[in-house]
Specification:
Elements lengths: L41 H4 L31 E2 L16 E7 L52 H4 L5 H13 L8 E6 L8 E7 L9 H5 L2 H10 L1 E7 L2 H4 L3 E4 L10 H7 L4 H12 L5 H10 L8 H5 L9 H10 L3 E9 H11 L3 E5 L1 E4 L4 E6 L8 H14 L7 E5 L5 H6 L2 E5 L3 H6 L2 E3 L15 H8 L1
Protein name: phosphoserine phosphatase
Family: Belongs to the HAD-like hydrolase superfamily. SerB family.
Keywords: Amino-acid biosynthesis, Hydrolase, Magnesium, Metal-binding, Serine biosynthesis
Length: 467
């Protein structure tokens, strides 16, 4: 009878100090060195407690090959996933979202009950957010159960664009992909690294336009809800060299570059302010034909002294940040125009104050004998209505050989909508509710220099341009 030979196993390895010496910190990290040879099998792992290993245990060994993409480029580049398994091909379209925290208009200004046990403050009364409906008067809205407001989160996680806010935005954008695709994303804090108020997020690829157009994406319900939850405003733009390098900016005057409505100021001189203001408000909300409403308001100004415009110059208030904005744009080589439904003398005065190249507005007829306004417009000059503003934008761009994609337009009234939609970037600035709903983008900041962030400029860039 043959006797079987018992397998001889080497003794259990002894951990010695020498086995830990001779390496460097970098060499001891798996991603910086090739994988160690696999010298163990499943039988070795499942050995009995009294058995010895077939071969000595190699420290820092790993039977799984290292991930070749584990080492990534430095910089603020991130994904909701650990890494991008399949890099996107060159030329993949990109989109940029500029996120502004609305520090001047908190959604929930009250102390949260969790932060102060002694707080007795009641929740605010329901209100319609500006820009979310044609009217903010709750009494004029349909008698239907109100949609539950999203829970305001900025007072919980910080009055700025927090990391959680940014993560939530990326989750929303990635959820809009049809069919689903992972996105490459990166971000920059444009004003300050700590507790930023303005953050620029670049992501690629954008949602498939066959399923969700760019225009629909800008007004998507998920983005609107995100803005309400985090008390922010999001401006979406297609990334291109022309997003960063515009060459023509056109502005409305009343309630945009200046805080006044000029025709209302004139009406104060003859005590018809109430009548004129009511017509102005309805016209700016798009409830009345602009040309007809302008003629009706001008008719009420009959008999006003012709020197009223000189007196008004001391009354007009230039909007916060307008001077700095125009100075920065001129330093960048922009052509600037003011296209106003107001009146030419004040448009020319404002152009001189802000260094604006073009000024177009309406011309009031003056009775030379009495030096008073006749209540009519000069018939030889066209009325600066919505169509004329769009035509002027296009003609000024053509005159200066500027592609329309390199233009930006800014306004607040219904008569600005056509030029806002025609420009490469149209921004409704602190606009009427209907205009905010229909405009390509909208902002409601405290200073007009916020518009410069849309060109990819940082706060340091803006300071240098406005010195």
């Amino acid at each position: 009878m043959s006797t079987s030979k018992t397998a001889v196993r080497p003794e259990r390895p002894v951990l010695r100090h020498s086995s830990l010496s001779g390496g460097s910190f970098i060499q001891d990290h798996q991603q910086y060195k090739p994988s160690a040879p696999v010298s163990q099998n499943i039988g070795d792992v499942l050995r009995s407690p009294h058995e010895n290993l077939v071969s000595p245990l190699v420290l820092n060994s790993n039977p799984i090959s290292p991930d070749p993409e584990k080492v990534k480029d430095s910089g603020i580049v991130h994904s909701l996933f650990g890494h991008v398994a399949n890099p996107l091909p060159g030329g993949t379209p990109k989109m940029v979202a500029t996120i502004y925290y609305k520090s001047s208009n908190p959604v929930h200004p009250h102390v949260h009950p969790d932060s102060s046990s002694g707080s007795k403050e009641r929740l605010p009364s329901p209100q319609v957010p500006v820009g979310s409906a044609p009217t903010v008067d709750i009494e004029k809205l349909p008698r239907e159960p109100p949609v539950p407001e999203p829970q305001p989160l900025d007072h919980l996680y910080g009055p700025y664009v927090s990391q959680l806010c940014l993560t939530n935005f990326l989750q929303i954008m990635e959820g809009l992909q049809t069919p689903y695709q992972r996105m490459n994303t990166s971000h920059r804090c444009l004003d300050q690294e700590e507790q930023p108020q303005v953050v620029e997020v670049t992501f690629s690829p954008p949602p498939n336009p066959e399923y969700l157009s760019f225009e629909d994406l800008r007004k998507h319900e998920s983005i609107w809800r995100f803005e309400r939850e985090w008390n922010v405003e999001v401006v979406l733009q297609k990334e291109s060299v022309f997003r960063r390098h515009k060459r023509l900016a056109v502005f409305d005057m009343d309630s945009t570059l200046i805080q006044n409505e000029v025709i209302d100021e004139i009406a104060k001189f003859i005590n018809v302010e109430k009548e004129v203001s009511e017509i102005t408000e309805r016209a700016m909300n798009g409830e009345l034909d602009f040309s007809a409403s302008l003629k009706a308001r001008v008719a009420l100004l009959k008999g006003v002294p012709a020197d009223v415009f000189e007196k008004l110059k001391s009354v007009l208030t230039i909007s916060p940040g307008a001077r700095e904005l125009c100075k920065a744009l001129k330093a960048l080589g922009f052509k600037i125009a003011v296209l106003s439904g107001g009146f030419q003398p004040l448009a020319e005065w404002l152009a001189g104050e802000l260094g604006i190249d073009y000024a177009y507005a309406n011309h009031l007829e003056v009775d030379t004998a009495t030096q008073t306004l006749t209540g009519n417009l000069v018939p030889s000059f066209p009325i600066i209505d919505a169509t004329q503003k769009r035509n002027l934008l296009q003609s000024i761009a053509k005159e200066n050989s500027i592609p329309i994609s390199q233009t930006i337009s800014v306004g607040d009234g219904a008569n600005d909508l056509l030029m806002l939609k025609a420009a490469g970037l149209g921004v409704a600035w602190r606009a009427k509710s209907k205009v905010q709903l229909e405009a390509p983008t909208r902002l409601n900041g405290e200073t007009m220099t916020d518009l410069l962030y849309l060109l990819g400029l940082s706060r340091d860039d803006i300071r240098e341009l406005t010195q």
